[in-house]
UniProtKB/TrEMBL annotation:
<feature type="domain" description="VOC">
    <location>
        <begin position="5"/>
        <end position="137"/>
    </location>
</feature>
<dbReference type="InterPro" id="IPR050383">
    <property type="entry name" value="GlyoxalaseI/FosfomycinResist"/>
</dbReference>
<dbReference type="Pfam" id="PF00903">
    <property type="entry name" value="Glyoxalase"/>
</dbReference>
<dbReference type="InterPro" id="IPR004360">
    <property type="entry name" value="Glyas_Fos-R_dOase_dom"/>
</dbReference>
<protein>
    <submittedName>
        <fullName>VOC family protein</fullName>
    </submittedName>
</protein>
<dbReference type="InterPro" id="IPR029068">
    <property type="entry name" value="Glyas_Bleomycin-R_OHBP_Dase"/>
</dbReference>
<dbReference type="InterPro" id="IPR037523">
    <property type="entry name" value="VOC_core"/>
</dbReference>
Length: 180
């Protein structure tokens, strides 16, 4: 018994139409499906919703629910805003920079490029307040992933005992954090 892949990831949105337009315009995703009901199929409770689906590439589906009868959506006030996000992979650094330029041209504030050694990222928010990351692989990604794979269990074990960052992979962000 094994999971095959993620079928879809679903988030809440403020406005389904605005969300579809934003993702198609800014991230070139295709709008692939909409489902709207007056009752929730799993719980049978009366609650009208619009459920939209976008093609996030390579069989990955990003979905949203608009829930007009529910209180305005919020976020967990105890979790820093940088923690909860969805990351999409792009081909290479040129593509990453092209997305950054296009997003900024469309008035979207972009953070980065952040150097994570194995990959490089930009960060921004969608119109619903969800943090989005676009990441491209580093040319030396495979070599660095092998180094990380060799220490993952030791790092996890140390963390579980101390709740302090183990130094096995401190090399990853040395460049990015050199001025901290």
């Amino acid at each position: 018994m094994k999971i095959e892949k993620i079928h879809h990831v679903a988030y809440r949105c403020k406005d389904a139409k605005e969300t579809v337009e934003w993702y198609t315009k800014n991230l070139n995703m295709d709008f692939i499906l909409a489902i709207a009901e007056d009752h929730v199929p799993s719980t049978h409770e009366p609650d009208p919703y619009m459920h939209i689906f976008l093609d996030a590439g390579d069989g990955n589906v990003l979905a949203f629910f608009e829930l007009p009868t529910k209180p305005e959506m919020g976020r967990d006030p105890n979790t820093p805003i940088w923690v909860q996000h969805i990351a999409f992979k792009v081909k290479d650094r040129d593509t990453l920079l092209e997305f950054k330029e296009n997003l900024e041209k469309n008035g979207i504030e972009v953070l980065g490029v952040t150097d994570h050694s194995i990959f490089h990222s930009i960060y921004f928010f969608d119109p619903n307040g969800h943090r989005i990351e676009l990441a491209c692989p580093d040319p030396a990604e495979d070599e660095m992933l092998k180094k990380l794979d060799a220490v993952k269990w030791d790092m996890l074990e140390e963390w579980s005992k101390t709740k302090r960052a183990p130094k096995h992979a401190a090399w990853m962000h040395e460049k990015e954090l050199s001025d901290v």
